[in-house]
Amino acid sequence: MSEDHGTDVLLDVLCPMHVRIGPAGDIRRVGPTLRKLRPDELVGQRFLDVFALNRPRAITSIYQLMQRSGAKLHLQFRRAPSTGLKGVIVPLPPGEGAIVDLSFGFSVLEAVRDYALTSADFAATDLTIELLYLVEAKTAAMDASHKLNLRLQGAMIAAEEQAYTDMLTGLKNRRAMDFVMQQLIAEGSRFSLMQLDLDFFKEINDSMGHAAGDHVLRHMARIMTEDSRDSDCVARVGGDEFVLIFKRLVDRARLEELADRLIARIRQPIAYQGRVCQVSVSIGMVVTPKAGRPDAVTLLHQADVALYSAKHAGRGTHRFYRPGMTYGPDATLLPPACRSRQD
């Protein structure tokens, strides 16, 4: 084994995010983690063409950079994702260039999310992964009054995005919906809530199979996403049940227009492997009161009651919750666990 090869193996193990650059600033070799971040994009390029140097700001050339041995560097990729990096440069003997050792710093959570990194992508002595596990466990167990500071909280939400996502449709899941509602209630924002339930969905699963049912659910998710704003929450909370939360949208006329549009679009036939799937949707709606602090459980209950009323009215329609509205047509209020909804 040559000396250079042995050095490369050693650097790969101890510094998996190192960059070896030549005297003119050309990238000659990168560690395995950097290869994962930017496959086929680094070797042969100029270091300062790949990385934007944010600090020290006075450095504008590779020559100046090589004169700053041991200086702390703040960089980021020029091409998206523009992951932020920290580093240190160590010059090699004259004429051989330098080694730049990089790390993620505060951007590690974004990097784990963007590049699907695992513990194998970090040096054996790097405690980053262990620290991430500890922070995640602590955050999940803490009460709202013991939240992390805003910077860490935002990073943790990004790292936990998968835990808040319904894997079939790509929508938010029930956990994410609960979080959004609690946030809106805590900040005192008024909002409206729609609960949607597909009609005749069971027949699709029974007659055409669950793959067809999954196709229908993904189609429904696209429609709801297209007919909502980026600030709205679109969540799948059950098999064929969805919840839409509209921040600061409490105008009933606009909500009725939106419900009518959703019903009309969802009613359209859906092609699947040469066959046609046909469903409709029933919608229950509730708007937070002008005064007082709403309760999330109560709002969901009221939307569910309104949804049942829409089902009882013939399906494929919508209803607003109103005081006195109950589940049963005989005015008997039955809890959800005791009633069976006809799909």
Main structural class:
alpha+beta
Strand order of the largest sheet: 2-1-6-5-4-3
First and last CA, distance: 70 Å
CATH architecture of the largest domain: 2-Layer Sandwich
Q: Provide the number of structural domains.
A: 3
The CATH class of the largest domain: Alpha Beta
Pfam families: GGDEF (PF00990)
GO molecular function, one term: diguanylate cyclase activity
Protein name: Diguanylate cyclase domain-containing protein
Enzyme class: transferase
3D architecture notes:
The protein has 343 residues and is of the alpha+beta class. The chain has three domains: 3-107, Haem NO binding associated domain (Beta-Lactamase); 128-158, no CATH class; 165-338, Alpha-Beta Plaits (2-Layer Sandwich). It has helices spanning 3-14, 32-37, 47-50, 62-66, 108-115, 128-141, 150-159, 174-187, 201-208, 210-226, 252-267, 296-312, and strands spanning 18-21, 27-30, 51-55, 72-77, 84-91, 98-103, 191-199, 233-236, 241-247, 270-272, 275-277, 280-287, 318-320. The strands form three sheets. A six-stranded antiparallel beta sheet has the order 2-1-6-5-4-3. Strand 12 (280-287), helix 12 (296-312) and strand 13 form a beta-alpha-beta unit. The longest helix has 17 residues, at 210-226. The radius of gyration is 27 Å and the shape is elongated. It holds the Pfam family GGDEF. It is an enzyme of class 2 (transferase).
